[in-house]
Amino acid sequence: MKQTLASSYAEPRPKAARQPLRQLFARHKLLAMVLALALIWLFFWHQTGGTFLRPNSISNLFLQMSVTGMLACGMVLVIIAGEIDLSVGSLLGLLGGLAAILTVNLGWNTWLAVAAVLAAGAALGLVNGCLTTRLRVPSFIVGLGGMLAYRGLLQLSTDSVTIAPVPDDLGAIAQAFVPPALSWLMVALIIALACGLALSRRRQRRRLGLALAPAWADGLKVGAIAATAAGFVLVLNQAHGVPLPVLILLALLGVFSWITSQTVFGRHVYAVGGNVEASRLSGVNVKRVKLMVFMLMGLMCAFAGIVTTARAAAGSPSAGVGGELDAIAACFIGGTSMRGGSGTVYGALIGALVMASLDNGMQQMNVDTSWQMIVKGAVLVLAVWIDVATRSERA
What we know:
395 residues, ABC transporter involved in vitamin B12 uptake, BtuC, 2 domains, two-stranded antiparallel sheet, 19 helices, 2 strands, globular, disordered N terminus
C-alpha cells in the first residue's frame, strides 16, 4: 500500500520537470518576451557581423518601430476589451494624408493642422465604436469595411498622388532628435519617478495592512529601470540622440500604462474583456467603455499618421498599408490574449520592437521579402500558440 501511494505521488514529477519553460511564459510573460527579444538581437548581431547593434542601427530600429508602437498602444486596449480593429492602417494613411492636405494644399498652420488631425482621429474612432456598440455590427466587419472605405477616401482626397513637401516644422516631428543634455535630464526624472512610485506603493500597502515585497526586490526593479533608461540614452546619444517620435511614443506609453493600471476606466476595460455579461450585471457601462476604447484607437492612428507623414515629408496614398497587421501582431506577440481580458501596454511595445527587429535584421541580412513575410507570420502563430498552451498555467 505504501509503495502504491509513493508511486502515485512520484508519477507527476517527470511531467512537472518538463514544464519550467512553459511556466516561465505563463507566469512571467513579460520577462520571457524580453529574453526572446534578447535572443533575436543576439542572432542578428552575429549574422550581421555586429552591424545590427551599432548605435545608428539601434536608432533606426526604434524610429522604425515608433509608428507600430503607437498603433499597438491603442490596439491592445481594443483587444483586451474583446474587440478588433482592422481599419487602423487605412485610418493612419487617411489622417496622415489629411495632415499633408491641410498644410500643403490649404496652407494651414502646422500645429493647427496637427490639432485638427488628432480631433479627426478621435471622431473617426468614435464612428467605429458607434457602429460596433450602437448598431451591433461585429467589430471585425466594421474594421474590414473601414479598411476599404478609409483607403478609398485617402485615394480620392489625394487624387492617388503624393502630396509634398510638407512644412519643415511638420517634418521636424519625425526627423528631429532630443539634445543629449535633455535626454539625461529625462533619465533622472524617470529614475525619480520610479523611486517615488515604489515608495508610494509600499506606503499604501503598509497602510492597508497588506504584505510587503522585500525592499531589495523593489530596489532591484528600480535599478533595472535606471539601467535600462541610462543604457538606452547612452547608445542613442552615440548616434544622433533620442529620435523625437520615440520620445512621443514613450510619453504615450506612460499615459496608457497609467490608464490601464491606475484608473477605473482601465479596470473596466479588463473586466469587459474578461466577462462582458458579469461586467454589465456589476453596473459597468459596457457600451461606453468600448466607445472610449475605439476613440483612443482613432487618436493613436492620428499620432501614427502624423509621424508617418512627417518622416516621409509627404502624404502618400499608400501610407499605412499593412499597419493593422503589424499592430495586431505586436499585441499578440507581446502577450495580449486573443480572447480578451488580458494583456499589457508594455508587452505590446515589446511586441512592436520584436516586429521591427525582425524587419530590420532581415533587411540587413538581405533576406528576400517573401521570406520576411513567412518568418513574421510564423512568429505570430507561435506567439498565439504559446498563449493558448499556457492558459491553463495562468488559471
